[in-house]
Amino acid sequence: MRIILLGPPGAGKGTQGELLQQKFQVPQIATGDMLRRAVREETRLGKEAQKYMQAGQLVPDEIIIGVVRERLAAPDCLQGYILDGFPRTVVQADALEQVLTALHTPLDAVVSIEVPEEELIRRLSGRWTCPQCEEIYHQERHPPRHPGVCDRCGTQLVQREDDRPETVKQRLAVYTEQTAPLKAYYRQRGLLREIDGLGSKEEVFRRICQAMGDIP
Ligand code: AP5
């Protein structure tokens, strides 16, 4: 099972990716999480990526393509994966297509989660995440059992630096300009499934599973 999750910041890609990973038992490859980990660990990649992420800009294609290419070659990707946050530009989509063609592993579906902008802003301003296990919470819709503490691993939750209102605005603009054109790219290839992302996370998950009903 090889799926791409597309959608603007806050659409619920991370949330749905986690549910899909549990259902299909394939890894969720979230480029944002990989980059944040590299920033925390102060690796060369992290130091390079940090300035773009803080500004709400995309990390340059040549950097992220190398990271994903390496990740897709890992043994746990043999049975498939959920790509969350990649590709984000046509250049990245073309690079992915080359890798998949070389490996004879076509995509099964590209799921685009559609959410209006006012709701995206509400979601991002209330989001808390676990820096350890990357579990995602929302202060009203999906609060942790104990305020500020991850249910899963007990780590203190944090708010992402790029969830500040001015950076969110920039990320939304970057999505519209650079990532939204990928919907046409994958529609042309007959892979696009557009999903209404409003409602509870369980409702959205049901819609995604229904939309992929033709996949064995
Ligand atoms: P990344 O981490 O991928 O951020 P993003 O795409 O902006 O997406 P988010 O993680 O903000 O949102 P999401 O859709 O996953 O929503 P979530 O499930 O958390 O990327 C960060 C940065 O890294 C980029 O800006 C860029 O700099 C860099 N980067 C990453 N990939 C790159 C690439 N390929 N190329 C170049 N640069 C790259 O949900 C959001 C909130 O809503 C949560 O609080 C959640 O609890 C809540 N929520 C979820 N579902 C629902 C629901 N159904 N109802 C109510 N609330 C909900």
Summarize, please.
With 216 residues, the chain is α/β, with parallel strands linked by helices. The protein has a single domain (2-26, 79-211), classed as P-loop containing nucleotide triphosphate hydrolases (Rossmann fold, 3-Layer(aba) Sandwich). The chain has nine helices and seven strands, in the order βαβαααβαβαββααβα.
What does this structure look like?
- It contains 9 helices and 7 strands; from the N terminus they run βαβαααβαβαββααβα.
- The chain is an alpha/beta fold and 216 residues long.
- The chain is 47% helix and 13% strand.
- The protein has a 5-stranded parallel beta sheet with strand order 2-3-1-4-7, sandwiched between helices. The chain has a two-stranded antiparallel ribbon with strand order 5-6.
- Strand 5 and strand 6 form a beta hairpin.
- The chain has one domain: P-loop containing nucleotide triphosphate hydrolases (Rossmann fold), CATH 3.40.50.300.
- BIS(adenosine)-5'-pentaphosphate binds next to helix 1, helix 2, helix 3, strand 6 and helix 9.
Bound molecules: BIS(adenosine)-5'-pentaphosphate
CATH architecture label name? 3-Layer(aba) Sandwich
Q: Which structural class matches the secondary elements?
A: alpha/beta
**How many domains is the backbone divided into?**
1
Q: What is the CATH class designation?
A: Alpha Beta
CATH superfamily: P-loop containing nucleotide triphosphate hydrolases
Got a strand count?
7
Distance between the termini: 9 Å
Principal-axes shape call = globular
Percent helix = 40-55%
Report mean pLDDT, rounded to a whole number: 95
Gyration radius over CA: 16 Å
